[in-house]
Amino acid sequence: MERLQKVLAHDGVASRRQSEKLIMSGRVRVNGTVVTELGTKVGVHDEILVDNVPVSTETPVYIMLYKPRGVISTANDDKGRQTVVDLLENVPQRVYPVGRLDYDTDGLLLLTNDGELANRLTHPKYEVEKTYIARVTGIPTNDTLRQLRQGMTIDGETYAPAKSKLLSVDDKKHTAIVQLVIHEGKNHQVKKMLSGVGYPVEKLKREQYGFLTLKGLNAGEARYLKPAEVQELKRLTGLA
To answer: How many CB atoms lie within 10 A of CB 167?
Structure first.
């Protein structure tokens, strides 16, 4: 048995605090009865409705995918394009991506039906680091990398300091490989930060999410996270 607000958050209905507000406002029913007390506990066989819409209480699933370029980071696409969920095989639970990767970006993407963990992983408060490798036009200077480390404001949007490192250069092609580590997840953040200091991104890959890496996976492949990995993600976000 679990507390009702925890189940709602886990199933992605809302954050735990927002789920508590849903309960107290009388918008949640358990087995046909309106429940307004936060201490209420429910089990897997209880019927839960929010605004008369059933809430699924599926077994929690945690998956790591090596997303290829040209795949949409959503569960469904109204244009009929291939999505990250389409790449998963034999996963009966309804899962959705944690954050997103751009259509033309490949790399590590997490998918789950654990709404509470997903919310925390994407919240900048918990500072879960994401490591990106970018090929950029031009060769960044030390001063440029220092700007990235100090944080920046672009078109009124403020970006937190990022860890940056020049990995290699190609003088003939006038390109460079740069590593950028961020803990935010703003839209097109890495591309905007690098372009903002004068080095447009030609190719981008997310190589690491927290302590998780792509080791053992090829593009388009996925695997379930190990229990110890799930526990470590929860520890990083204050859920353990």
So the answer is: 11
Mean residue pLDDT across the chain: 92
Residue 34 CB: number of other CB atoms within 10 A? 11
Supply the pTM of this predicted model. 0.81
R_g (Cα) of the chain, nearest Å = 20
Tokens of 107: 């790399």
How many angstroms separate the CA atoms of 127 and 29, rounded? 35
Catalytic sites, residue numbers:
102
Dump pLDDT digits (tens) for 52-91.
888 766 788 999 999 999 999 988 888 889 999 999 988 8
What domains appear along the chain, each with residue ranges and CATH number? Answer: 2-55 (3.10.290.10), 62-124+212-236 (3.30.70.580), 129-209 (3.30.70.1560)
